[in-house]
Amino acid sequence: MAVKTTGTITVQGERLSISNPDRVLWPEAGITKLRYLEKLAELAPHLIRHCEGRYLTVIRYPNGIHGKSFYQKNAPEPLPPFVRTAEQNGIRYVVLDSLPTLIWLGNLACLEFHASFDRIGEPLRPTEWVIDLDPSREEEPRIMEAAWLAGELLRSLGIASVPKTSGATGVQIVVPVEPDLTFDELRAIGRFVGEYLVSRHPKLFTIERLKKNRGDLIYFDYLQHYAGKTLSAPYTPRARPAASVSTPLTWDEVRADVRPADFNLHTIGPRLARLGDLLERAPKQNLRPIFEFIRRRQG
């Protein structure tokens, strides 16, 4: 029988209890809880940047990625005094805005961090537009081809974007935007782009919502980007055997057909040291001219 151990660490002046530091969370990748917390500290400046100011949902795996898991929206109890929360629709969400909060969540075996598209206490004008390319099968060798084609179409419309791995099987395309259009207006752009891609590449893309009706096609999901919905945050780890991390990519990497599993807790630190956060450098864009063009076109 495993022996439970507990230690304490001080993080930015806050004293935290760490339980079971030797528990293996990712067996295939050889990552224990203690190693995970070290990696979270490495990811912290970037992961926190993309989660703060948003409603946070976590997925907890108390016994590692092969054990039982559960989603948690309401802030876990007991709540340390340094952890801030925000309420929405009767749910008290954790506000991920500090390293102590992140390490506290990591100690609770929160292995995935999913941030809302809407921001806490702000009008419903999104600051990014996100397309989610979701494969219908577990292994999808065409996912980077699909991302490249979607990116090429956006470029033809004058829209610069940043692809990122979901950390699982999919790819998301992120467009930082000026907070001008509504979620519904951005959805209209997404539908236009998705329908065009389906018409040009009917053996690759679908906008069919029901998974059972998609066959082996890649779902061009323009509906997920909406108030109250979440997506894997940039730089969140994922509960996958490779300990993959949702990672922004260059378009050259997409064209080279990189493997999402290559971006993981072991490799993300050197990558960030070399490239920094590709999303942070992406300029915000004004998509209103595109929206007005589509609106006029559709009558």
UniProtKB/TrEMBL annotation:
One of its GO terms (molecular function) is DNA ligase (ATP) activity. Its EC number is 6.5.1.1. InterPro entries: LigD_pol_dom (IPR014145), NHEJ_LigD (IPR052171). Pfam families: LigD_Prim-Pol. Residues 32-278 form the DNA ligase D polymerase domain. The keyword Ligase applies. Transmembrane segments: none annotated. Keywords: Ligase. NCBIfam families: ligD_pol. This is DNA polymerase LigD, polymerase domain protein. It comes from Thermobacillus xylanilyticus. The gene is txxe 881-ligd.
